[in-house]
Design brief:
- The protein has one domain: Rossmann fold (3-Layer(aba) Sandwich), CATH 3.40.50.300.
- Helix content is 58%, strand content 11%.
- It has helices at residues 15-26, 34-43, 47-52, 63-72, 77-80, 84-101, 112-115, 131-141, 148-169, 186-209, and strands at residues 4-9, 29-31, 105-108, 122-128, 182-185.
C-alpha cells in the first residue's frame, strides 16, 4: 500500500478496531491515541494536556485567531496568547502531516483528512453503525459497567463533540458523504466484512491510480 488512510468514525462504530485491522492487513502503523503521544513529543506539551483537549469543541469566535496564527507559525506573538485547545489542535495538525510524510499509515480521527487535504495518495473513510450495535459495543467495551441508557448518552455526547470539533476546524461537514471518499455502515457487514470491503476499495483505488 502506498496510501495514507484517514478514518472518521461514530462512537461505538468500531472505527478504531477497523483502522487497526486495516493497518495490520497492509502491514503499516495505525495512529489513534498514539498520535497524542507523538504530538506531545513533537510539541513539548504534556500528554495529559493533549488528552484533556482531544477532539473537544471550542469557542467558534476564536476561529480567525487560530487560522491567522497558524499561517504565521508558532513563533508569532499571538500564539503565546492562544487558548490551550487551539495550541493542541495545531500540535496535532503538524504531527499528522509529519506522520504522513513518513509513509503509508492509518490515522483515526482528529481532522486528519482535513490536515492532509493537499497531500497526494490519501483516502478518507467514514465509519458509521446502527444505534443498537453501537450501544452493544460501548457496553461491551466498558465490561457492562454502563447501562443501555448510559451508553446511548455517551454515544450522543461523544458524537456531538466530534461533530463540533470537525465542523469547527475543517471546511467540511462531519459524517457527510461529500466530505469523504467512502462512507460505510459497519453494521451491514460486521467488523471483519467492513475491513475486507475497505481493503478491497483501497487496492482498487491504488490500481486505478497507476
Amino acid at each position: 500500500m502506498n496510501t495514507v488512510i484517514t478514518i472518521g468514525r461514530e462512537f461505538g462504530s468500531g472505527g478504531r478496531e477497523i483502522g487497526e485491522l486495516i493497518a495490520k492487513h497492509f502491514d503499516v502503523k495505525c495512529y489513534d491515541k498514539e498520535l497524542l503521544t507523538r504530538a506531545a513529543a513533537d510539541s513539548g506539551f504534556c500528554a495529559e494536556m493533549l488528552q484533556n483537549h482531544d477532539e473537544k469543541p471550542t469557542n467558534s469566535f476564536l476561529y480567525n485567531l487560530v487560522m491567522d496564527t497558524y499561517s504565521f507559525g508558532y513563533n508569532s506573538s499571538s500564539y503565546v496568547d492562544m487558548p490551550i485547545s487551539h495550541k493542541v489542535f495545531l500540535a496535532q495538525f503538524d504531527t499528522i502531516k509529519n506522520i504522513a510524510k513518513e509513509g503509508p499509515c492509518v490515522i483515526v480521527g482528529r481532522c486528519a483528512d482535513y490536515a492532509l487535504s493537499e497531500y497526494p495518495n490519501v483516502i478518507n473513510i467514514f465509519i458509521s453503525a446502527d444505534e443498537d450495535d453501537k450501544v452493544k459495543r460501548v457496553m461491551g467495551r466498558f465490561k457492562d459497567l454502563v447501562t443501555e441508557d448510559k451508553a446511548r448518552e455517551m454515544i450522543n455526547k461523544k458524537d456531538k463533540q466530534r461533530k463540533s470539533y470537525y465542523n469547527y476546524y475543517s471546511s467540511k461537514k462531519w459524517g457527510r458523504a461529500e466530505s469523504y471518499d467512502l462512507c460505510i455502515n459497519s453494521s451491514k457487514l460486521g467488523i471483519d466484512g467492513t475491513v475486507d470491503y475497505i481493503c478491497d476499495f483501497i487496492e482498487r483505488v491504488e490500481a486505478n491510480r497507476r
